[in-house]
Amino acid sequence: MLAVMSMMVTKAHYVDKCDIDVISTDGNEIRVLVGAVTIESKTKNLYVLTTPDTLTIKAVIVNPTSHFSREYDFHYKDIVIPYTEENLGKLKTISDKYTEWSKAAKENEVGHMEKDIDISIDDLYVHLYETNGNRLTNEYIISIEKKKFTFSVPATKGKEPMLRMELQGKDQKKDSKSFAGSLWFDSCKEFEDFVDFIQQENLSDKLANKTIDKIFK
Prior knowledge:
The protein has helices at 2-10, 85-107, 188-197, 200-207, 212-215; strands at 22-24, 30-39, 42-50, 57-62, 66-67, 76-82, 113-117, 125-132, 135-153, 162-171, 178-185. A hairpin with a 6-residue loop joins strand 3 and strand 4 (57-62). It contains 5 helices and 11 strands, in the order H-E-E-E-E-E-E-H-E-E-E-E-E-H-H-H. Strands 1, 2, 3, 4, 5, 6, 7, 8, 9, 10 and 11 form an 11-stranded antiparallel sheet that branches. Helix 2 (85-107) runs antiparallel to helix 3. The chain is globular, with a radius of gyration of 18 Å. By secondary structure, the protein is of the alpha+beta class.
């Protein structure tokens, strides 16, 4: 599944800025800005990869909050989460566990600690790319070999327990280089809001008026 998704994405042509929030690709897919969520106490845009009629959501796209590989100093860095019932279910389970552990940490006055949540989204990948106008000029599709969600109680007393999605992988070329990045959530409320935002009913409502025919009447 990952190889098919990656091949489809590499055909895409992206536009740097678009006031109508639709970024056109090769005609078979569009990358649509559906809103913003709070991640690491900052407002971060959230996109979906969908069909031109916006009837089929293929993936949720969000940028990492931290990026550790200077080899990949691309302007665009996308974490791509394929949009499946299984992945939505896993994210909801992680959210419930994060909330449960946060409550336990506070009730027991736990000090600094980290513990992995034993759930993985296997088909997640990273897309790094540059554009010139609406033309895709350079890109890497990163196959993520190591991914984990880590629950973290900060050393600072009174600070909310955090959740880190850590990603490590390599590009698909023979001379592959390493990539490492992460997505941090500062509280279980941030992660819960993120998971709620990407539910089918919410995204379908936000996409309802963003078909090409409705935008260009």
